[in-house]
Amino acid sequence: MLAIAIIIFLVLLFIGAPIWFVLGMSGGFLAVFGMNLPSANVPSHFFIAADSWILLAIPFFLLAGNLMTFMGTAHRMLSFIVHLVGHFRGGLAIAAVIACAIFGALSGSAVATVVAVGTMVIPHMLEAGYSKENSLGIVSASGTLGAMIPPSIIMILYASIVQVNVSDLFLAGVAPGIMLTILLVITAIIVSYREKAVGRSKSSSKEIGSSFVQAIPALLMPAVVLGGIYQGIFTPTEAAAIAVFYVLLISFIFERKNFTKNNLIKSIKGAVVTTAAIYIILGGVSLFSQSLTFSQVPQQITEYVASVNVPAWLVTLVIVVFLLLLGTFLEPGPILFITVPILLPTILNLGIDPIHFGIIMVICLMIAQITPPVGMTLFVLSSNFKTNVGVVIRGSLPYMYALIIGSIIILYFPWLSTFLVD
Questions:
Q1: Are 7 and 322 in contact (CB under 8 A)?
Q2: Tally of domains in the chain
Q3: What tens digit of pLDDT does each residue of 363-398 get?
Q4: 178 is a domain residue
């Protein structure tokens, strides 16, 4: 029955079936014919998987990010960053990285980040002499930083699967997120100097000050959300709801022109569609992982690794390589949902902190979003700027290498992701 379930899984995956259907069909087959469960139990998994307090944070964080995008408050923040550093050699590239890091954390979506930041920054970069490859490549890679910098949707999903404290996971992502941002900034400066790109005209102190004042409401949102969580004022789920209220409030006060029914509907629709997709995939994951556990697949992998006496550092390196290879043909969500239930028992048996492993997963999933041929941000930018996807791929390569270096650093210096938690 297990062999047939695996064949069903591989065939459906190969023909491009939706990942929730792939997981649900293969897991459902194994549950009914391998575990002898009533067929009525199969659809119940899709409800049980979504019945989690922490998962309620996902629609709220997505809605908050969409509101910032459509209501215009995010553009105030982007404008301030460009005014502040845009005049330096490589300054616009630096501004693109920083803007992507901040906006990515607020929106929770790499796609929304590359579109919002790219629309504003890339035209200025091209005008200043940056190549199209570099301009598109840096935004494509930097748009993934929101996965590491809290609050992160991927971290919430990982925490719900592994049953770890999502607040600890958020805290663990702070230092690696800053480190990866610095690595991308350094790479951006090197590439920009090689291209001899010039900065935009220097903004006056008055322009910088004015743009900063206008950006303060947006810049305060991470402090409100994360500060409230770590001061014990509210839980991560409550913080997500507070984020929505906060964005609505500042949009109503400072962006009255964009505070329209149409923008509100677009924001809600985007959050609902994305949330529904995540929840239905989680249902398939629940069914798939329970069936595999019943079939002793994770346990057998753990026993095998223990029997061959392989050092933990080598096992984790193999896992990272495996995840990066999966990223060449799968999107981040499916990688997370398929691999974590299988790999977690082995990780725990090796004595690896699940919080640290979560950060390793996040950096691998970041790289997956810019890995051809299925890197989502590559195709979004290619479509949005009417450019051949090969141009975006070539431009993103230096930044992908920087992220890979970052993954090795995170892998072998676990204190980077655990010292704040401890």
A1: no
A2: 1
A3: 998 998 888 766 778 877 887 788 888 888 899 999
A4: yes
Please give the share of the chain, as a percent, with pLDDT higher than 70: 92
Q: Do 389 and 163 form a contact (C-beta atoms < 8 A)?
A: no
The three-class DSSP label of residue 303 is helix
CA–CA dist 287, 146 (Å, integer): 29
Residue 15 burial (10 A CB sphere; 0-12, 13-18, 19+): exposed
Contacts of 86 (CB under 8 A, 6+ apart): 92, 95, 124, 199, 200, 203
33 assigned to some structural domain: no
Nearest-angstrom CA–CA distance, 157 and 57: 10
CA distances from 370 to 93, 105, 139, 181, 390 (A): 18, 18, 10, 16, 12
**Residue ranges making up the domain that contains 91:** 40-418
Whether 372 maps to a domain, the answer reads yes
Distance from CA of residue 37 to its chain's centroid? 35
For 158-222, the DSSP string reads HHHHHT--HHHHHHHTHHHHHHHHHHHHHHHHHHHHHHT--PPPPPPHHHHHHHHHHHHHHHHHH
**3 state DSSP class of 276:** helix
What value does the mean pLDDT take over residues 261-272?
A: 89
Q: Is residue 5 part of a domain?
A: no
